[in-house]
Amino acid sequence: MLEIEDLTCTYGSVVAASQVCLSVKAGEILALVGSNGAGKTSTIMATMGHVRITGGSIMLDGVDVTRLGPRHRARLGMAVVPEGRRLFADMTVDENLTVGGYTRTKPAARQARERAYALFPRLAERRRQIAGSMSGGEQQMLAIGRALMVSPKVLLIDELSLGLMPKIIDLCMETIVRLKREGIAIVLVEQNTDRALEVADAVVVLASGRVVKAGTPEMIRADDTFFQTYIGLDGGQAVRNQVEANVEQRSS
Amino acid sequence: MYYVELAVQGLIYGSMYALMALGLTLIYGLLRVLHIAHAAVFTLGAYVGVITANATGSLWIAFPAAILAAVLAGIAIYRLVYAPLLDRPPLVPLIASVGLLILLEDLFRIVFGNQGIAFNENPYVYMTVTIGGLSIGVLQLAMFVGSVASLSAFAAFVAFSRTGAAWRATLGNPQMATSFGVSVAQVRYLNFAIGSAFAGLAGVLIALLNNYAEPGMGTIVSYKTLAIIVLGGLGSMRGALIGSLLLGVIESYGTVYLSGGVDRDAIAALCLIAILMFRPEGLAKRIAA
Ligand SMILES: Nc1ncnc2c1ncn2[C@@H]1O[C@H](COP(=O)(O)OP(=O)(O)OP(=O)(O)O)[C@@H](O)[C@H]1O
Ligand SMILES: [Mg+2]
Questions:
Q1: What is the pLDDT of residue A230?
Q2: Is A89 on the interface with B (CB under 8 A)?
């Protein structure tokens, strides 16, 4: 459904993503993990068409969208739940969904809206509330609901669980598993690697903009030192912390 | 009664300012460009209105013709002047805009003459109606009703239609709006079209009220609307509306109480200076974008 080959993007001299390859089938969740600054957000935003790429290609359901803008990618069935949610903060919940369904026909948008409200009854209770005034969890539900208004074939999610309490994370995870069963191809960027591996069908690990490992969740889990180095805290920070702690113990 | 009359006069002028200020604030909100040349679109509307009315003898043709001309001019200005300059520092489109206003005013002078043109026939100039004991000019009433009606229609469009929602989304967060299929270019064109239509309408209404159109008629309006959108908080629609009515009323009272020292048209400039000194963020706090 989504095939990315050799995607490369740079900001000036910073290479944010270099020859990233990934592919997600319909009804599959691909977890994209890596430490801070590994290039996850850049990959997501380049896939949606917001970051210009310097190389590579992006295929959406058999269509080459590499040269198309985000607007056209949306029309072809790509939707994003961006890092930081980025809702239309001064508009109501209902209006955020309206904009989400901008490409759909009126009846299709109506149906999608009912669906979003059924999925997140909390949103239905707050239809008229200004999005910016909602709690973080509610905002994340709205960001997901807004993306679903597109009726996406491919759903790109950047930082699903960031800043949410466990119960809400559970709800969001359950929801995306449900969406995957309905046949949506999902790319999930997630800091909480354990949670991501629970729901993922495949995993791609990024470090410094490069794919350093790809495989099933089991394969990633099996390689313990690898796990620590690349996906633990900040780029092996966990390992460094451990070493420093040992040093301190010895010196005291 | 006298005070009420002054207030009514103020609101009537304020409603015309609102027509002009709205377009300006919308364009600022979307592009961060101070569209000074908006005043030339207003003047163009006035000229086309007068010329069409004189040629056809019908105001029913003059209004749509003026509005259409204004819309086309506004779109052309965006396409030919602002669009190529948007990547430059904000001062560049601003200077281009000031230059364009001067250029267009001179163009009006060259094409239509220095003196301005009057309506051949304008039976409404001296007509008045009496409402609740107040005698109001028919044209002033028309200006008020026309402004309120078009601004309300616009407010309803922005608040309730899907395109209106897409518009607001683009104002607040253009990148995310495109993620959901909204065309920022279309929103910009629509923005210029609607803002310019209002300017064209205001142009004909003022031409009718003065009975003629002249090359420099936009200059005063341009700095007044500038004062208004600074007063209301740059980019805020609600602020522009409140600022317009406020300036209208302040001018109305000011003309009477300050008549010794200050010209009516200087009041806007005084307000502008006062606001910039004491409350540069505008009177109405901007709603979080
Ligand atoms: N707009 C930008 N301009 C310059 N450099 C940028 C920009 N955006 C990202 N970068 C750089 O690109 C690299 C990858 O950043 P990116 O945001 O994609 O990482 P990430 O994996 O999403 O990190 P995090 O887990 O912190 O969200 C970083 O080194 C970052 O500093
Ligand atoms: Mg990120």
A1: 64
A2: yes
The residue whose CA has the least distance to atom 28 of ligand 1 is A37
- The whole-number pLDDT of residue B29 equals 86
| A70 and A163 in a common domain | yes
Nearest-Cα distance to chain A for B285, in Å, is 14
Using CB atoms, pick whichever of B180, B181, B289 lies closest to residue A90. B289
Residue B148 near residue B15, CB atoms below 8 Å: yes
DSSP letter at A132 equals G
Structural contact between residues B235 and B282, judged by C-beta atoms closer than 8 angstroms:
no
Give tens-digit pLDDT for A157-214.
999 888 888 889 999 999 999 999 999 999 999 888 888 888 999 999 888 888 888 8
Res. B160: pLDDT tops 80: yes
Distance separating alpha carbons of residues A240 and B289, to the nearest angstrom: 42
Mean pLDDT computed over B64-87: 95
Chain A touched by B231 (CB under 8 Å): no
How many domains in chain A?
2
Question: How many beta carbons lie within 10 A of that of residue A84, not counting itself?
Answer: 12
Q: How far A74 CA lies from chain B's nearest CA (Å)?
A: 6
Please give the residue range of the domain that contains residue A106: 87-151
Q: Is A80 on the interface with B (CB under 8 A)?
A: yes
pLDDT range class, residue B289, cuts 50, 70, 90: very low
Domain ends where: A151, A172, A193? Answer: A151
In this structure, the answer to whether residues A101 and A24 fall within a common structural domain is: no
Domains in chain B: ranges and CATH? 2-278 (1.10.3470)
Q: Does B186 touch chain A (CB under 8 A)?
A: no
Instruction: Kindly give the distance from the C-alpha atom of residue A131 to the centroid of ligand 2, in angstroms, as a whole number.
Output: 22
Residues A179 and A228 both lie in one domain: yes
Query: Is there an atom of ligand 1 within 6 Å of A37 CB?
Result: yes
Looking at the fold, whether A175 and A241 belong to one and the same domain comes out as: yes
Residue A74 to residue B181, Cβ atoms within 8 A: yes
Same domain flag for A56 and A105: no
**Contact criterion met (CB < 8 Å) for A88 and B169:** yes
With respect to residue A82, please indicate whether it lies within any of the assigned structural domains.
Answer: no
- Residues B78/B83/B88/B93 CA torsion (nearest 10 deg): -10
Query: What are the beta bridge partners of residue A81?
Result: A157
- Check residue B53 and give its pLDDT: 95
> Is the separation of the CB atoms in A15 and A207 below 8 Å?
no
ipTM at complex level: 0.84
CATH number at residue A11: 3.40.50.300
- A101 and A142 assigned to the same domain: yes
Both A160 and A144 in a single domain? no
Shared domain check, A247 and A175: yes
CA distance B266 to A39: 57
Q: List, for residues B229-287, the tens digit of each pLDDT value.
A: 888 777 778 888 888 998 899 888 888 777 666 777 787 778 778 877 777 776 655 44
Q: Which of A102, A103, A148, A157 to mutate to test the interface with B (most CBs of B within 10 A)?
A: A102
Cβ of B180 within 8 Å of Cβ of A100? The answer is yes
